[in-house]
Automatic annotation (TrEMBL):
Keywords: Glutamine amidotransferase
A Pfam family reported for this protein in Swiss-Prot or TrEMBL: DJ-1_PfpI
Domain DJ-1/PfpI: 3-161
The organism of origin for this protein: Lentzea pudingi
Identification of the protein by name: Glutamine amidotransferase
InterPro entries found in the cross-reference section: Class_I_gatase-like (IPR029062), DJ-1/PfpI (IPR002818), INH-QAR (IPR052158)
C-alpha cells in the first residue's frame, strides 16, 4: 500500500513527519514523497526533504497526507500545483487526509464537506463551504482531517485503526510511545494569548 506525503515550500514539518512515523511503521506501507519537482523542499522552520516523485509522474496512490503551513493564506493564493494534483489523484485513493491547515487545500480542491483544521484557519474552511468541526480528528467519507500540527499523530493512528485494525494501531502507538498529556486544551487558553497568536499569523502572511 502506497502512502504519499505531499511536500511544498514552507510546509510545517511535524504535520507530515508525525503521520509518517505512524503510517510508515506498518510493514505493508510504502512511503512516497511528492512535490512539484524532485528538488529538495524546505519546511517553514528549515527541515529539508527530498521528494521521491513529482506531481507529473505520480497519478495514483492509496493514501494521501497533506500537511499544513503557517503560510496557508499564501498557499491558497498559489498552491504551486498542489490543489490541481489533489483533484486529479483523489479519485484513485482509498484515503485522502490532511493535517492542520492542509484541510484548506482539500477544501480549495472541492474534496471535503466537513473537516477540522488549526483554530486560526477555521474561517478559511468555512468560506469554502466546509462544515467546520473543532474535533481533533474528523472522518468525512474517505477524507480524514486532523486539527493543528500535533493532531496529525492522532489522525494517523485513527487512520491505521480504520485500515489495519485496532491491534495494529495500538502496536504502532506503543512503538512510538505516544501518550499525550497536554498542559491545557485550546478552549482554556486565555483569549488575549490566542489573539496575539492570530495577529502573528496574519502579519507573517501580509
Amino acid at each position: 500500500m502506497d502512502a504519499t506525503f505531499v511536500l511544498y515550500p514552507n510546509m510545517t514539518a511535524l504535520d507530515f513527519v508525525g503521520p509518517y512515523e505512524v503510517i510508515a511503521a506498518v510493514p505493508v506501507v510504502n512511503a512516497r514523497f511528492v512535490a512539484a519537482t524532485l528538488d529538495p523542499v524546505k519546511s517553514d522552520n528549515g527541515l529539508t526533504v527530498v521528494p521521491t516523485d513529482t506531481f507529473d509522474s505520480l497519478k495514483s496512490t492509496d493514501i494521501i497526507v497533506v500537511p499544513g503551513s503557517g503560510h496557508w493564506k499564501e498557499l491558497l493564493r498559489d498552491s504551486g500545483g498542489v490543489v490541481e494534483w489533489l483533484r486529479e489523484v483523489h479519485p484513485t485513493t482509498k484515503w485522502t487526509t490532511s493535517v492542520c491547515t492542509g484541510s484548506t487545500l482539500l477544501a480549495e480542491a472541492g474534496l471535503v464537506s466537513k473537516a477540522t483544521t488549526h483554530w486560526a484557519a477555521r474561517e478559511d474552511l468555512e468560506v469554502r463551504g466546509v462544515e467546520v468541526s473543532t474535533d481533533r480528528v474528523v472522518f468525512d467519507g474517505k477524507v480524514v482531517s486532523g486539527a493543528g500540527v500535533s493532531a496529525g499523530i492522532d489522525m494517523a493512528l485513527r487512520l491505521v485503526e480504520a485500515e489495519f485494525g485496532e491491534m495494529v494501531a495500538q502496536a504502532v502507538q506503543a512503538g512510538i510511545e505516544y501518550d499525550p498529556q497536554p498542559p491545557r486544551a485550546y478552549d482554556s487558553i486565555p483569549p488575549e494569548v490566542l489573539q496575539g497568536l492570530k495577529q502573528a499569523f496574519e502579519e507573517a502572511q501580509a
